[in-house]
Structure formats: structure tokens, C-alpha cells
Design brief:
Order of helices and strands: EHEHEEEHHEHEHHEHEHEHHH
Distance between the termini: 61 Å
CATH superfamily: Glycoside hydrolase, family 3, N-terminal domain
Largest sheet: 5 strands, parallel
Number of helices: 12
Number of strands: 10
Number of domains: 1
Strand content: 5-15%
CATH class: Alpha Beta
Strand order of the largest sheet: 6-3-2-1-10
Structural class: alpha/beta
Mean pLDDT: 92
Shape: globular
Helix content: 40-55%
């Protein structure tokens, strides 16, 4: 059975019968985990192992483990900084920031791969404009040049561990005020402005190495009336043809408010796939997931299926040796030293 084009969530800490039924559906290709799916490392391993046993080839398992306020697994995992803190460090010490970004990318990927998780949807390649509270310190920096250096280092670390990277949110969510989880954001800028700023990070990271890209639920209305994730212009003309990206295109979650502009869930799925998405995220609405799966029962895209099998994790350190390896111990020491410095600096700022 090949991997289908839909990535779903599951209800809780263990699989229910309804979860298993959805995951066995031929149009399911992956699972995204959330904080509600995590209690402890031991529980996570059991959940992931059961998901892996459901299908062959096994379903892709993903999570948003960016760092800072977007870290789904916390207790029992290394605490990760917001990427904006690496940008702040870069302004003071460029070499250390780049080295630390690579180290953190390696830690994130190694730790997830240890438990059988294939992907962290990272790094964020958006610009860190203050106007965007939903992005904010999730972005490395305001400068495309600095974002590219830190993101490429982060990806080097991920790939060294055996995980591919998924950059987000194309063509850039950091320059708009609205949060697409709750509203439809509009970006009023001309294409030439977007191209010379936000697109630069994606273009240059693609030229280095990037296996996946997640689309933004944003309408750039001076460019196209459709949100980017539904737009053949953004996906096919800009991303595929202009930027020469040949990896996986993920939709952002089709249950978000920013995804509702084209109609119901089946229409959202249809328009996303027609625009060029390879995999659709349908989360936090199981009725919607069932509708999409049944609607796509006859859907088949061999090119997308070939792209999807590239992202299964390939741990480079055998699982029973990871946490005792010299690389792990030295990397964690560097990360924890940085986290302590950051906490002390923030504490000092409170008394200035």
C-alpha cells in the first residue's frame, strides 16, 4: 500500500479504534502529533511503535518541535530556545550562533528520531517582523541573510542526525499581522517587494538543501486572489518553476480559519491538490478528516508518492547509543549553557 496524500492527528495518548480505522485508510499518508499526544518518553515510544505497525510502508510521523513556545514534547526532552534567540546571539557572536544552530538542529532531530518520529516541521524561514505575533520569535531574525545562515546550519544538523527539513511558511508569513489559525491574513505588498525580501530565505535555502515546504494560509492580494496554499501561481509558477523546488509541498492545516475561504473541507482538499500540494494536513476535526479521506478515495499521484518516501527518518546513531554518545553529551552541554545564559540575561533585564 502506498502513502496517501492526507496527514491526520490522533485523539490522545493511545490509539482508539477510530484512529486505527483512519490510519488504515489508503489515502492516509502521515500522522502529526500534538502536546495532547505526549505524556512521557515511554508512552510516546509505545504510541509511535503502534502507528508504525499499521502500514507498510510505514506512515510518516511529524511534530512541530521548533523550540520556544512551539515545542510539543517538553518533559523528558531537551528544552529548546526560540530561534529568535539564536538571531540575537548572531548579532553578538556570528560563529557561535551558527555553530549552536547546527547543534540544536542535530539535537532536535536525534531526539525525535530516537522515538521513531520522522519530521519536525522546521525550520521557520519567515522574517521576524514585530507586526506578526504568530511568527515573532519563531523566526531566526529580520534579515534574510542571517536567517539563511542560521537555517542552513540548523538543517545541516538535522541531516547529520538523519532527518530531512521542512521550511515554512511559503512564501512568507512574517510580514502580516493576522494569525491564520484564527483569521484570513492579507498581505498588501507587490510581488516585487515580497520577492526581494521574504522569498529570499526560501530561494537560498532551497538552493542549499530543503526536502519539504509548508505553505502559508495568507492571501497576497496584489499577486493572486487565492491563499498561497491554494494558488497554482505560488506553488507551480513561483515555487516549482522559478525556485526549482522539487521536494514535498505540505499544506498548512486545512482546519485553520485561514483555510476556509474556498469552502468546505472537500473543496479545500480539491483546490490544494490541484494547486500542487503533495500532502494535506487535516487536524482537530475527525469528521472533516473522514470527509476528505472518502472524497479522495480514487485519488492517485505517483510523483507525490515518490516524494513522500524520501522523508522517513534514518537515525545515524543507533538508538541504544544516542544518549551516551560523546556528540550527544557535548551538544546538550552547549545547549544548556546557552539556555542558562539566556535566562540570566533576561533576569538582568528585569532589574534594569
Amino acid at each position: 500500500m502506498s502513502l496517501g496524500p492526507v496527514m491526520l492527528d490522533v485523539e490522545g495518548l493511545v490509539l482508539t479504534d477510530a484512529d486505527r480505522k483512519r490510519l488504515k485508510h489508503p489515502q492516509t499518508g502521515g500522522v502529526i502529533l500534538f502536546s495532547r499526544n505526549y505524556e512521557s518518553p515511554l508512552q510516546l515510544k509505545a504510541l509511535v511503535d503502534e502507528i508504525h505497525q499499521i502500514r507498510n510502508p510505514r506512515l510518516i510521523i511529524a511534530v512541530d518541535q521548533e523550540g520556544g513556545r512551539v515545542q510539543r514534547f517538553r518533559e523528558g526532552f531537551q528544552r529548546l530556545p526560540a530561534m529568535g534567540l539564536l538571531g540575537d546571539l548572531y548579532d553578538k557572536d556570528q560563529q557561535r550562533a551558527v555553530e549552536l544552530s547546527q547543534t540544536i538542529g542535530w539535537i532536535v532531530a536525534s531526539e525525535l528520531l530516537f522515538y521513531g518520529i520522522d519530521l519536525s516541521f522546521s525550520p521557520v524561514l519567515d522574517l521576524g517582523h514585530k507586526i506578526s505575533t504568530v511568527i515573532g520569535d519563531r523566526a531566526f531574525h529580520m534579515s534574510p541573510d542571517i536567517i539563511v545562515k542560521l537555517a542552513n546550519a540548523f538543517i545541516r544538523g538535522m541531516r547529520q542526525a538523519g532527518m530531512e527539513a521542512v521550511g515554512k511558511h511559503f512564501p512568507g508569513h512574517g510580514s502580516v499581522e493576522g494569525d491564520s489559525h484564527h483569521v484570513m491574513p492579507f498581505d498588501k505588498r507587490a510581488f516585487s517587494t515580497i520577492e526581494s525580501h521574504d522569498l529570499q530565505t526560501f530561494k537560498r535555502v532551497i538552493n542549499t538543501h530543503l526536502t519539504g515546504i509548508m505553505m502559508a494560509h495568507v492571501i497576497y492580494d496584489k499577486v493572486d486572489e487565492l491563499p498561497a496554499g491554494y494558488s497554482p501561481f505560488w506553488i507551480q509558477q513561483v515555487l516549482r518553476e522559478q525556485l526549482k523546488f522539487d521536494g514535498i509541498v505540505f499544506s498548512d492545516d486545512l482546519s485553520m480559519s485561514g483555510a476556509a475561504s474556498v469552502g468546505g473541507y472537500t473543496e479545500r482538499a480539491k483546490v490544494s491538490l490541484q494547486a500542487g500540494c503533495d500532502m494535506l494536513l487535516v487536524c482537530n476535526d475527525h469528521q472533516a478528516a473522514d470527509e476528505v479521506l472518502d472524497y479522495l478515495i480514487d485519488y492517485n499521484n505517483p510523483v507525490s508518492q515518490l516524494r513522500l518516501v524520501r522523508v522517513h527518518g534514518r537515525p545515524q546513531i543507533k538508538n541504544n547509543k544516542l544518549f551516551s554518545s560523546d556528540q550527544w553529551l557535548k551538544s546538550v552541554e552547549s545547549l544548556q549553557a546557552f539556555m542558562l545564559e539566556t535566562e540570566l540575561t533576561q533576569s538582568d533585564d528585569l532589574f534594569e
